[in-house]
Write a structure and sequence with these properties.
alpha/beta; 8-stranded mixed sheet; 4-stranded antiparallel sheet; elongated; binds zinc ion
């Protein structure tokens, strides 16, 4: 299988560079999506387009079991600083997370599986928009695709990969259980009563109140949560006032919450509310709203076992390394909430250089592409051939 994937390398690189050159941010992946539709249709897939706005669902084979393989297509609003033949031609937009590689790999998997004589079941490709962002109603690409029926019909398991700038090419990392954090947003305002900067005693200064609120917010993880529960509360935006001598009426505060356990999520929401109550006891008031984002991504132990077994046959068990823990969000968690699923990190490190994700110099080592194709394609085949039976 690895040999078959390596034979596709020129095509995979061409796909990846093409997507990289013309990046599109979440829910505007019109060109990328059209290209995906074109390739998958030519490979003989049954294709449904505009699923969750710009998403694509495509199937090979028919009947049960069904395995879903997911890739994301969106880029980031970032100016690229790399000078390569495939540097972004869309000003201020860049594939700085490697989703160009994910989409290219998915097309490679489709090509290999389309050449199989007989597929004992269905491979469903989920090519999603907007992994990095939510729309105006707060839904990300995976959530929009699910609302449009992308997971209907009894999906047995769901697979995905994410390139990793920290793992060398030829290696993957994966583990069972929580693999990325759940994320919520809080939007708040500390309310006071503005007035003259020289007469603070006649005002209720919301900036002064907000200072206490922010201290309390930063105490949640360190003082209120169990130290064994991973979580983050970060204030990322704070705005108030326009003049040196005017005390404003309110301070707007925007922050992010990360967690692994639903119970911790609940507790954090409660503690954030308590932190804002400080504004009340100091004479002011507040408004607070939570926006629910994506859930934590939990890797199913049986699916992880299948991927590990397959990968160790292809690349050797010594090349499966433990993952770096983190609370980054990944909306594949929305799919793996509906079917046992797992995502692995595919080593894509550019040797001798720091190419951090979401950085203007991020890049993917193209040599990683066939490894991703081979592991996904082989895992899918083994699952279908097993009749959808997962071994403990
Ligand atoms: Zn990202
Ligand atoms: Zn990403």
């Amino acid at each position: 299988m690895l040999k078959r994937a390596i034979e596709l390398q020129d095509k995979l690189v061409a796909y990846r560079h093409d997507f990289h050159k013309f990046p599109e941010v979440g829910f505007t992946e019109f060109r990328t999506s059209a290209k995906v539709v074109e390739v998958l249709t030519a490979l003989g897939c049954k294709v449904r387009k505009n699923v969750g706005k710009t998403g694509v669902v495509a199937e090979l084979g028919e009947g049960q079991p069904i395995i879903a393989i997911r890739a994301d297509m969106d880029a980031l609003p970032l100016k690229e600083d790399n000078q390569v033949e495939y540097t972004s031609q869309n000003p201020g937009v860049m594939h700085a997370c490697g989703h160009d590689a994910h989409t290219a790999i998915l097309l490679g998997v489709a090509e290999i599986l389309s050449n199989e004589e007989h597929l004992p079941g269905t491979v469903r490709f989920l090519v999603q928009p907007a992994e990095e962002v939510a729309d105006e109603e707060g839904f990300s690409g995976a959530q929009r695709m699910i609302q449009d029926g992308a997971m209907q019909g009894g999906v047995g398991i769901a697979l995905a990969l994410h390139v990793s700038a920290h793992v060398p090419v030829g290696q993957i990392s994966i583990s069972s259980g929580p693999a990325s954090g759940g994320v919520d947003t809080f939007r708040a305002a500390v309310l006071g009563m503005g007035g003259h900067g020289a007469r603070p005693h006649e005002t209720v200064d919301p900036i002064f109140l907000a200072a206490y609120v922010i201290l309390a917010l930063n105490g949640i993880v360190s003082r209120r949560l169990n130290p064994y529960d991973p979580a983050v509360v970060s204030v990322g935006s704070i705005h108030a006032g326009n003049a040196d001598n005017v005390i404003p009426n309110q301070v707007d505060i925007l922050g992010t919450i990360r967690y692994m356990e639903p119970g911790v999520q609940k507790q954090i929401h409660k503690e954030i509310k308590k932190a804002f109550e400080v504004a009340k006891s100091l004479g002011g008031d507040y408004k607070l709203k939570f926006e629910f984002g994506t859930p934590p991504m939990i890797n199913d132990p049986k699916v992880v076992k299948l991927i590990k077994q397959t990968a160790s046959d292809l690349i050797g068990s010594e090349n499966i390394v433990p993952p770096q823990a983190g609370l980054g969000a990944e909306d594949f968690g929305c799919f793996s909430e509906l079917a046992p699923g797992a995502m692995f990190s595919l080593g894509s490190k550019v040797e001798g250089d720091e190419r951090e994700h979401h950085n203007s110099r991020f890049d993917v080592n193209d040599a990683c592409l066939p490894y991703g194709v081979a592991i996904l394609a082989e895992t899918a085949l083994r699952y279908l051939r097993s009749g959808g039976v997962l071994i403990n």
